[in-house]
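Fold sample X.
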Amino acid sequence: MYYAGSHKYLIYASCILAALSALIALIPFYDVWRIMKEVLEVRPDFSAAVYIKSYGWQAVGFALLSMVIYIAGLMCSHKAAFRVQATMRTVMMEYIMKLPLGYVESQRTGKIRKIVADSSAATETYLAHNLPDKAVSMATPVGLLIMMAVFDWRLGLISLIPALIAFLLMGTLMMGPKLAKDMKEYQNALEAMSSEAVEYIRGIPVVKTFRQTVFSFKRFKKAIDEYEKWTISYTKSMMKPMVGFTTASNGIFAVLIIAAYVFTGHGVTDTFILNLFFYIIITSILTVTLMKIAYAGESQMIVEDALNRMDEILNVKTLPEAEVTKQPKDAAVSVQNVTFAYDGAKRNAIDGISLQAKVGEHIALVGPSGGGKTTLASLIARFWDVKSGAIKIGGVDVKEIGSKELMNQVSYVFQDSKLLKMSILENVRMGCPKATDEEVIQALKDAQCMDIIEKFPEGIHTMIGSKGVYVSGGESQRLAIARAFLKNAPILILDEATAFADPDNERLVQQAFETLSKDKTVIMIAHRLSTVTNADCIYVLAEGKIAESGTHEQLLEKDSIYKHMWSEYNKSVNWQVGKAGVSEC
């Protein structure tokens, strides 16, 4: 209701209209009863039945009126539901934009997409359809009880016995805490498949290159297998309760026939036959109502789970903003005894690290995977907040610098840069929204991107993505570097920026970096050690600590981790295929 705003009154109106339509929908059954009553009263002179036509048209009129009112109710519920869904998505996306970038990066994109899109869609389905149906399912039994009291109470009571059995089966075996748990497991399984599917699709080029199958992506296959296992188990567990519920809810007329056989042992009256026909006809409404209650209960479990998943994101704490932002005096970076651990981790990802990067100095972070390189770079850009210690830019703690000002100070080039479904011009212009077309073109030139632009007829206006063209990983990286050129921040963080570049693209990327890095404080993360040999200082990180530091030459003079890494790197670079060739795997 909070997200509905003023549209919440439409939700109330939809429930009232739906309940009203349910009650009006019962009137035609009364008209049918009056038609049968008149026929029985005038038989065999059926020409004396003068009210049949009027009763019939009255039944049609009330049936149409019920439909119109129900449609009006659905129009109200849909208008409110779409507003709620749109508001939820807007609020969630705005909140996600405020979350630490480290959190967003740590979550699988498929998971966030499913929560934002599918969970909000679940609320739309519930408000637009299930909530009015719930009102109908509550109003219909009230109307039926009143009508049953007017006619033969014995038949009315007997017809309620199977309905009560169906309701008990639904409440004890098909609903309640068990269904809530099952719905959560179901959504977890879908979420896992969605997330792994995204990762698998991204890895298809690798799969094709090495002639592998889906089984190469064990996590994706495991997600599918777990979903299959859960679905089969859940279906089997629900088989008997569902059979019992369906049989009881659809077998009301059969119980009435048995009751009629017992009650008419001493003779049959016209009134009893008339009432029996009425109950047999109207019990179909009771059956439909029970089914609506069942589906409404399931839908409520689904929407509650959807809301809980949205709350998981909305409950993530944002980084506190400085009340008064301070301006860094320069682009020097100081890391002072910093410690950081991810939530739920058993050990610190960064453990008491201190280092300095003076203005215009280039430093490199190297070391084995999991050593903390990317985490440390993320902390400098304040993707996370440190647990202890301090990170300062220009003598000011990053916590005291407003997020907008901090982003003006830092450019971060990721190893897997993303391009959005828009033109090359707009993709690059994200670095500086106020930039002119000429400034964007100059940034593209500086980033060695003109060969990319020239091969497309529409040039910088070429659309990227499903409605346009696709570029290679290396080309995508160069376009991301053009974005960094346009931003022109004094501090540049490069996180494995050549990881996905082929040799030709890597050469162009390195040329772009040489131009981009001039007069900037650069923090570079690299596995290709040839890219860091000219760094002013190289820090070797292992298990969250600085194992050693120095220039390339200084580290090679002693028996160091870096020296071993350099030796292994050169072996891999100088490796050549033997003259005999390579046997096919």
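Fold sample Y, listed below.
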Amino acid sequence: MRKFVVRGMLPLVAALVSPAHARVAEMQVDTLVTPLATAEGISVRLQWPDGRDSGDLVLQAKRLVIGESGYAFRNLRWTCTATRTAPERLACDGELRAANAPASSLRAQWTAGQLELQLTQAKSTVGLVGPARAASPTVDAASARTVPSGSTTPSAGNASDWTVAVARMPAAWLAPLLAGLWPDGSITGGTVDATWSVGTRSDGTLVAGGPLAVAGLGIDTADGTLAAASLDAGGRVHLQWGATTRIDADLAVRGGELLAGAVYANLPETPIDVGWTLAGSGTAWALERAVWSDPGVFDVQATAALDTEADAALRALDARFAVPDAALATPRYFESLLGSVGLAGLRARGALRGRVLLDAGGLRQLELAPSALDLDDADRRFGVEGLDGTLRLTAADGDSTLGWRAAHVHGIALGATRLALRSGGMGLALAQPATIPALGGSIVLPKFSWRRAADAGESAAFDLALTLRDIDLRQLSAALGWPAFSGTLSGDIPGVRYADSVIDLQGGLTLRLFDGSMRIDALTLERPFGVAPTMTAAIAFDNLDLKPLTGAFGFGEITGRLGGHVRGLRLVDWTPVAFDARFETSTSAKDPRRISQRAVRDLTEVGGGGIAAGLQAQVLKVFQTFGYARIGLSCTLANDVCRMGGLDGGDGGYTIVEGAGLPRVTVVGHQRQVDWPVLVARLKAATEGQAPIID
């Protein structure tokens, strides 16, 4: 039997339909090429007994490749019963099998030059309808060979040559097509209904498109950065493959879940309009448009350029967004993103709009414009009411203003403020000093600047200076949960720098409090917003008034003036692990030096010592206060053990209170080594008035 190549599928079908009275017709074809598919190793056998209106057809192919779609099948065999229902109508219905696909039912019908195919598997169907464009060959029954009756070259066709209709088709059947367009993606579930036109243009470009509906769609990527589940969508899609690949889509999406990077969205049942146009070839792609419109909640419009072989595939992005209702948009779209930066449960109300520009070098412009925006941190670390203005970060110079009606940070209330800002080189700085009302006084920011990571080194950095003016210590103590200090707090911080997750206090901090001063030097804070934050510092006290100080701590009353230091201070997760501390009263101050009975008992308990060189315990309770010459106490903490000391010391102990006048009392400590947790418990008991009663 002679083998040859047939250019076109329709002549083969016509040969089977021709009105010959053949008992057996056979055909072998090396290669069959159509606008939609290429088949190799084809054999056809039609057995049609004389006088019968039906026959048996067996069609086999070693390989079938459908265009550039990625679909390829091996060792196909279709066995069906052919029936002639009219002179120009032939139908054949039977089982189709392939080595790499489940068995299906295939029905084919040839009617007046038009081929119709319908593939059925379980509840899913795929139909194909295409017109004939070639002259019809005849079949010589005697020799069982095909005799061409003219040219068999089909026309080039156009986009309407074929119609493909699918119903309840598993979305997973699209996996080969998706593999060519999106190698890292996979389909995990869902069904598809569509009626598309498919064909080729004169330049060989394959085009397809039409209505599309998906139900319960699930997708995933190997790295887990993009995923979807239970998505329902409907609309129109248009695809083309050729020198340039192009995908146009406009869909209405309802329900389901979507994950893109750190953004997780639980979508509503109300429709969201989603559209995009993606075009490109090789590794260069252009997102000519991208639209996401959740009416009244969240809208995005963007364009982008991508290079799939570059380290950073996103080469350019211009995205504009609007959040008309932050109360709805925050839990719907931003909950997971906020959680990834430590802001889980953030509540928002009001509106926000903005724009983001990126290029291959990173962020080039960021614009945020809040309107009557309220933010409340779930952990009450901060909050703001009535945030409005425009914040611009640009490569070129630009001005911004940002203000709020009220705010709070860790319980510290901040009054209405408006900041004048200036950006340049993607940094941000105060254009003029700002004054923020706070705690009965004010916080003055003479300087503030921020630089992004690309300009600052390994990470972003900010620098600021601030001045505290007449901060009410009682309000500050209540806000921070401190003892009830009284008076006011003023001071200057000439410089604070944050970079590489470390806060450095530059130039030291001087605070005026308790009618004296406190100086903080060499302060660094590592990982302030991370795990196990660590702080180091050196602190010096000078001329503090002991009466309000001891009253604030509930330690019993002591009058006089106090100085001292805490050197080598180190805190891990806000717990002291090392320091060298010493406190001693002034002998030159003019203030009276008196100590209450309660303070004597508290110091005795802290030092683990007793009363000596003075009144006996039975007499002690008769007097309310005592005179003293000096008070001194020290502690050097290392390895969770505090080495205690006082004014002097020897084998017999160390003096904490040196008495003077009448009545007088001297307090001596005897325990040199004290476990830090034990000392903390003693201090806590003393400040809570739980020291032992002296009988």
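Sample Y note: The CA atoms of residues 590 and 632 lie 18 Å apart.
Also: The first strand starts at residue 4 and ends at 6.
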